[in-house]
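>> received
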Amino acid sequence: MKNLVYILVVVFSLPLHSQWITVQGENYHNHSAYDQFTIDPYTNSMWCVSLYFTTVFDSDGNFITFDENELGDREAGDEINFGFTQGHIFFTKKLFGLYSFDSYQKQILYQSNSFNEITNDVDTLFVTSSNGYLLKYRLGIGAENTSLNARHCAAKNGHLYTDRGSYYFVENNGIDSPIWQDPFSLGVPTDVMKFDNDSDTIYLSFDNGISKFHNGIGYDTITPNNTTNMPSPNVLEIEFDGDNNLWVAFGDANDDFFALGKLEGDTWSEVYTAANSPINFDEFYGFEFDTLGNIWVSSGKDLHTLENSNSPGWLSNQEFTISAPQISVYPNPAT
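>> returned
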């Protein structure tokens, strides 16, 4: 009887969601977002970026595709990444430099042949470089080369963290201090840094889990040892939903994506794999949340979202693939 009661609790506590809805890319942009998938947090527009094409879905469902006519020549080895501030759009072309893209018109701001990602802290851009220093840029003010070497960075409310194979916290004096000596640092970094929505706490990903840091000091971890049903300790992407719940894209021992999960308390209450979702994890290009709390997943040529009361109205006005309702169970079979 004890086992029966346990099974009933598990079954009835499983989250019952509306169905996954898939926006089929072959009917729209017809390319994969393998360079970047991102959402402008100020407009909720979704950007699907590949080598030669960039498609933007506006919040009303209308979309436009840009190619070399708008973005400039693309060469082998080039990459493009977009970033946003309030009212402004920017992008980097790895072999050319930093551009503004307001009103979908490009204008060169700073030339470089090694720019990578863009992040921002309010109106200040931080641009990482593959063989140079981190660039700070403010529209109307200009560029400032820092002495910080970084292939990734994260910034919020004056708190800056960098990554150059190991994570660093940048002190007020501009000097970055390694955090690998902190007892809450875990394993090998997987190069993902994300602030939560409600605080200046940053979540740093490792192949052994997640470390939580504030002001450069670690204070907690998230691992299979202190949570239930964590699909893998290898964390490859971190995002937060509208309720500030942690969501993670997990990788296997080969760093291949295979699962997407939500943490509530100390339990991974929702876990999606290829078995219970339409997501093609063999061609997984990232996931994001819009400001309404909707999850959007880019895989293959498609976008996937879970239907709910906050889903944008344009989804119901289009012909999309709608999968059967899913119950998220992990592991399967449950015990």
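>> Residues 1-16, 323-330 have pLDDT under 50 and may be disordered.
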